Amino acid sequence: MTAAGAPAFDAGFRATLAALIAWRRDVRRFRPDPVPEEVLRACLQLACLSPSVGNSQPWRFVRVGDPARRAAVIANFSACNRQAAEAYPDERAAAYRRLKLEGLREAPVHLAVLCDEATQAGHGLGRATMPEMLRYSVVTAIHTFWLAARAHGLGVGWVSILDPAPLVASLSVPPAWRLIAYLCVGLPQEEHTDPELARHDWQPRLAADRLLLER
């Protein structure tokens, strides 16, 4: 600990953190084992410590357990997935159809993560010129949850091949809540250091030095 009481993060911690980030994967293949409630709650608690514009904390987590609502989400994905495949030329469409892009049927936990765009928390600070900062704040909470879940041995899969409007309607939430992510959570069937889309030749990782511009 430092003199002010803040923790000192040493080289060992930094190496562990780097390993955690490197091993965070978008998981699509889940074991059926239930997720311990205390573990899920701990991960959500850490997610709620994420930074947010004006301290607005606009994230809203909805655990979807009702079979009819889950079936609606799966049907939503299936329709959107067909449309997405049809938008690619033949060779790329065939490669797309070979990919496993969700674990909706297998994952024991479904979490819809939404942004409350009508929140009064934060009093509008920091978003007069960039109202999208509310949604970006929710994304930080999602990433924090993802890392926390990985640290507990859980896998998380972000399903984005969905039509948000009917999905949100099926959840019976306030009209000002906007879908940011639909997450599948559970114990992964397998572990990989490389992203599935890189492993199956869809898109390799880009080198970090290609993504940094100097001005």
From TrEMBL:
Gene3D superfamilies in UniProt: NADH Oxidase (3.40.109.10)
Pfam families: Nitroreductase
Domain Nitroreductase: 21-186
Lineage top rank: taxon: Bacteria
CDD domains: BluB
InterPro entries with a match to the protein in the record: BluB (IPR012825), Nitroreductase (IPR029479), Nitroreductase-like (IPR000415), Nitroreductase/BluB (IPR050627)
Name of the protein this chain belongs to: 5,6-dimethylbenzimidazole synthase
